[in-house]
Structure formats: structure tokens, C-alpha cells
Amino acid sequence: MITLAVSAIEKNRAAEVSMLVNTCVGCHGNDGSSVGPATPSIAGMRKPLFIKAMQDMKSGKRPSTVMGLLAKGYTDEEVEMMADFFSKQDVVRYTQNFEHEKAERGKELHNQYCDGCHKIEGRDQPLFNALSGQWMPYLKFRLSDFRNGDASSSMMASALEYFIMNNESEESLEDLLHFYGSQE
Ligand code: HEC
Ligand code: HEC
């Protein structure tokens, strides 16, 4: 009896999750692997990062185009259920239009300035967003937001300030994007 009741609850929950995420996959792609280019993949995103992103976009702390309004429609419990679902999906990394030379330079810059937090090798750093294979136009928007008042991360604000201080040309930021885009 008890097992039956539990499995009925689980079934209901699975149906509820699939109804919730149905709204998201229209933009974020099948199981959260976006076909780009300005909508990020959210498959495999760590739960705490996912929840923080939703909260920051909802409160307006993090600027957004569509997500701020959309996030307002969900309770904390629903966000948690969606975070759980997407964190368990494998991300599909699509081939992007990157230039080899820029990607090579970007790799060195990444290792010097970014890898301490955003590990590329292993791709399993739990505390920071995975950048490899994320859509280049999306990353570009996000980087320029961090520099123009995205208050969601003081760590990123200072990491970029330090980076810009040491690499005066804007091209070096572009090189980083080509490196992330080259990670299929
Ligand atoms: C109309 C298209 C659209 C829909 C529908 C949509 N998103 Fe988004 N999502 C975006 C865009 C575009 C961004 C980038 C931020 C912005 O500009 O709003 C984004 C960003 C995000 C991020 C941040 C990712 C990161 O790397 O920081 C999360 C998490 C997210 N969406 C979750 C969801 C969830 C959960 C749903 C379903 C309830 C959803 N989205 C529905 C377009 C959409
Ligand atoms: C001290 C740690 C740290 C360093 C160094 C760092 N970052 Fe970050 N980065 C973060 C954190 C924390 C976040 C999550 C921000 C949030 O909560 O939205 C982040 C988020 C990002 C995002 C947004 C990803 C997404 O899915 O929206 C990009 C892009 C990014 N970092 C690029 C870089 C680049 C490029 C460098 C090197 C120049 C760098 N980071 C160095 C901590 C760091």
C-alpha cells in the first residue's frame, strides 16, 4: 500500500516537472541544450547556480531581456524542481563559428585569468558556471553586462577589472570568447 502511494506521488511530481520545463525548452532547447545563439544552454547547470540565477533575474539584480519577467511566475519550490531537472541533463555542445588563432590566444588568457574559478579541464567545477561550449553571443552579452552594472557577482566584476587592467585591448576579451566557442 505504502509503496503504491509513494509511486503515485512520484508520478505526479514527474508530470509536474515535465509541465514546468516544457515552457523553458522552447527557448533553451531540448533538455536545456540551446541551439543559440543568445539563449544560454542550461543543461547540466549546477543547482545552486541555477537557483541564484533565477533569483537574481527575478529581483533585477542581474539584468535580463526576458527572464526577469518570466522568473516572477515561479515559486521557490518550482524553481528548485526545475533546477533539479536541468542539473541532471547532459549538455550538447554545438559547433560554433570560431577562429583558431583567436581561440589559441584565448586559451592562454583563460589559463592565466579565469581557470582558477572556471575550470575547463574536468568540466565539473561545482561552484562556477561552465563556460566551455556556451554560446559566444550569450557570453559576450553577459561579459558586457558584468562591466556595466550587473550586480550579481562582485567576484566577476573584480576578475574582469583585473583582466582589463592587464590587457588593454578589447580584443583579448574577444579571444576568450573564441576559446570557449571552440570547446565542443
Ligand atoms: C522566450 C525565451 C525564454 C524562455 C521561454 C525561457 N528562457 Fe531562460 N533565458 C532566456 C534568455 C534570452 C536568457 C539570457 C538572459 C535574458 O536576456 O533574459 C535566459 C537565461 C536563463 C538562465 C541563466 C543561465 C545562466 O547561464 O546564467 C536560466 C537559469 C534560465 N534562463 C532558466 C529558464 C527556465 C527555468 C525557464 C522556464 C521556466 C526559462 N529559462 C524560459 C530565454 C528564455
Ligand atoms: C574569483 C573567481 C572568478 C574568476 C577569476 C572569474 N570568474 Fe567568471 N564567474 C565567477 C562567478 C562566481 C560567476 C557567477 C556569477 C553569477 O552569480 O551570475 C561567474 C560567471 C561568469 C560568466 C557568466 C556565465 C553564465 O552562464 O552566465 C562568464 C561569461 C564568466 N564568468 C567569464 C569569466 C572570464 C572570461 C574570466 C577570466 C577573465 C572569469 N570569468 C574569471 C567567478 C569568477
From TrEMBL:
Residues 9-90, 101-184 form the Cytochrome c domain. It is found in: Periplasm. Heme c 2 binds at residues 114, 117-118. GO terms for cellular component: periplasmic space. Its main location: periplasm. The keyword Nucleotide-binding does not apply. Heme c 1 binds at residues 24, 27-28, 67. PROSITE patterns: CYTC. Binds 2 heme c groups covalently per subunit. One of its GO terms (molecular function) is iron ion binding. Keywords: Electron transport, Heme, Iron, Metal-binding, Periplasm, Transport. Gene3D superfamilies: Cytochrome c-like domain (1.10.760.10). This is Cytochrome c domain-containing protein. It comes from Candidatus Thiomargarita nelsonii.
